[in-house]
């Protein structure tokens, strides 16, 4: 996988290319920088070559996560060039059909953190599984696995049986059992009212496929990652595994129905479209003028470790500006040669992020 073609550019013009870096498995293994990551980001900053961090991770508000990443990587980063899985959820709070004043159930990470993010996004009535468990302890018939966390973070419910208008999974859930129990209760409810049951959303005229008709709350997941690269030498289950468990249980509960859901994050087009907008805004600030003067980026090098998210997303994305997203797969994360050919072939396979940056810089001349 060595692409020998070189791009051509008239001398002295600004480099019309940029980078998008995945985080887990490319820059970090949880809290530990991957060798070469810090130097690579610093080199691009010195050369004023724009880049964004584009992660399916989350669990902290963008500002908090960027402070955390800056200290772990020892590189000055900002929210201006940072997109994480649930960042686009903030758009669902606002606008004419915004959910900011509705009751939403939020879980993921330790759900209290996800509640804090949701509130910073503008959602005003955020309920967590802990709130529901504390108000209705028998909803979970076994000893609660995270009792002390729940007791510390729970808030009273607005009413004993609130109507939940939407369900959000912001990051990787910790207590899958309790979360799936409560989410399923709401998806089997009449119009999202906690404690009720209806196979037809309470609307007898709905056909039997009424499950998840217009009566039950929509469910939004922030990323589909079945695996991700953490500190353990083998990939760990991500939010996509939680979804697979949820889908399997839903299929059995409903006699074979597919759970209707919205999943965002890489590899989906909306996430890459959003990321390209963030990258172009950042580039304009970094270089002091916008796309109208600089012209569109010719290329974005998407450096990732997961063929199913990073590589697939870049390969499939068709940029409205005609920017080519070139996928570069590293060997420091989810994928390794032991796992066979990548399901989505990258433009290039390299050892690590430093090799990815060197290959791109050499190629761009
Ligand atoms: O939860 C993190 C995981 O899903 C993957 O994150 O940075 O590799 O896209 P990242
Ligand atoms: Mg990754």
Automatic annotation (TrEMBL):
Question: Where does the record place a coiled coil?
Answer: none
Q: What name is this protein filed under?
A: HAD-like domain-containing protein
What GO biological process terms are annotated to this protein in UniProt?
glycerophospholipid biosynthetic process
Q: Which organism is it from?
A: Pseudomassariella vexata
What lineage is on file?
A: Eukaryota, Fungi, Dikarya, Ascomycota, Pezizomycotina
Output a single Gene Ontology CC term carried by this record.
mitochondrion
| Origin: domain of life | Eukaryota
């Amino acid at each position: 996988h060595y692409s020998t073609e070189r791009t051509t550019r008239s001398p002295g013009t600004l480099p019309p290319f940029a980078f998008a870096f995945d985080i887990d498995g490319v820059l970090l293994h949880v809290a530990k920088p991957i060798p070469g990551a810090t130097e690579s980001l610093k080199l691009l900053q010195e050369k004023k070559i724009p880049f964004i961090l584009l992660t399916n991770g989350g669990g902290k508000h963008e500002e908090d996560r960027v402070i955390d990443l800056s200290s772990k990587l020892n590189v000055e980063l900002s929210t201006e060039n940072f997109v994480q899985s649930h960042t686009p959820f903030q758009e669902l709070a606002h606008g004419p059909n915004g959910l900011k004043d509705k009751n939403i159930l939020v879980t993921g990470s330790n759900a209290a953190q996800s509640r804090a993010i949701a509130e910073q996004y503008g959602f005003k009535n955020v309920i967590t599984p802990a709130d529901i468990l504390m108000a209705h302890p028998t909803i979970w018939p076994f000893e609660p696995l995270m009792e002390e966390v729940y007791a510390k973070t729970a808030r009273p419910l607005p009413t004993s049986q609130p109507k939940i208008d939407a369900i959000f999974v912001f990051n990787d859930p910790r207590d899958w059992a309790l979360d799936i129990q409560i989410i399923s209760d709401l998806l089997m409810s009449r119009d999202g009212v906690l404690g009720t049951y209806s196979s037809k959303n309470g609307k007898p005229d709905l056909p039997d496929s009424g499950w998840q008709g217009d009566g039950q709350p929509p469910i939004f997941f922030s990323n589909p990652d079945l695996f991700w690269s953490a500190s353990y030498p083998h990939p760990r289950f991500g939010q996509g595994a939680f979804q697979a468990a949820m889908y399997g249980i839903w299929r059995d509960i409903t006699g074979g129905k597919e759970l209707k859901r919205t999943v965002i994050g890489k590899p989906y087009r909306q996430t890459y479209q959003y990321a390209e907008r963030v990258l172009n805004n950042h580039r304009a600030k970094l270089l002091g003028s916008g796309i109208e003067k600089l012209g569109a980026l010719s290329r974005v090098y998407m450096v990732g470790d997961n063929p199913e998210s990073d590589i697939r997303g870049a390969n499939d994305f068709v940029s409205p500006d005609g920017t080519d997203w070139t996928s570069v797969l590293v060997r420091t994360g989810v994928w390794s040669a032991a796992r066979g050919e990548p399901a989505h072939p990258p433009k290039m396979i390299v050892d690590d992020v430093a090799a990815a940056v060197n290959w791109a810089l050499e190629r761009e001349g």
